[in-house]
Specification:
204 residues; alpha/beta; five-stranded parallel beta sheet; two-stranded antiparallel sheet; 9 strands
């Protein structure tokens, strides 16, 4: 089933997406991440769908797209709210038909992928403003999970901090978290969420 992950930046949506993939029957197949905010809009379509040789100027050889490369596995759309309305329509069609077509191609190809998408944007507001398709939202939110802010899950701070201590000590030195240090960490509001906690532990 498609999964939609909501929550602020730094709450661990990408890690949850990877965990869902690893704990599924697709675990041995590809996990392909598409960062909708990092790829320029004019390149994103060819990145998603690939292209045939000669499809446009500079397309000297066939290139499979990320959706094709993920066949059998999972596609993770990170920063889904950055996807243009035009590409939202094309993604909706892929979800409906399970088929893709390379740019410049004439033959649709069937693909078997699981879709996981994540955003820190308010999708409801975007739908009202016309910048996000309501039909795509309902296609993706078969399972919808909201990652809570770190400030709302203080009980996780100790385990997370100890994990990051181990990660950055790298077995070279033995470090532990004092009760006083934990009290300080638990009293802070963590606007940057888990990402900020990791940076604080790393810097310490």
């Amino acid at each position: 089933a498609p999964v939609l992950l909501l929550g602020e930046n730094g709450t661990g949506k990408d890690l949850l997406a990877q965990a869902i993939h690893r704990n599924s029957h697709r675990a041995m197949k590809p996990f392909v991440t598409i960062n909708c905010g990092a790829i320029p809009a004019d390149l994103l379509e060819s990145e998603l769908f690939g292209y045939e040789s000669g499809a446009f100027t500079g397309a000297t050889k066939l290139k499979p797209g990320k959706l094709e490369l993920a066949n059998g596995g999972t596609v993770f759309f990170d920063e889904l709210g950055e996807l243009s309305v035009n590409l939202q329509a094309k993604l909706l069609r892929v979800l409906q038909t399970k088929e893709i077509e390379r740019l410049g191609g004439v033959q649709p190809m069937r693909i078997d992928v699981r879709f996981i998408a994540a955003t820190n944007r308010n999708i409801g507001d975007m739908i009202e403003k016309g910048s996000f398709r309501e039909d795509l939202y309902y296609r993706l939110k078969v399972i919808e999970l909201t990652m809570p802010k770190l400030d709302e899950r203080k009980e996780d701070i100790k385990d997370l901090a100890e994990f990051f201590i181990g990660k950055y000590a790298d077995g070279k030195i033995s470090l532990s978290l004092s009760r006083e240090a934990l009290d300080v960490l638990e009293q802070y509001s963590w606007p940057g969420n888990i990402m900020e906690l990791e940076n604080v532990i790393h810097r310490s």
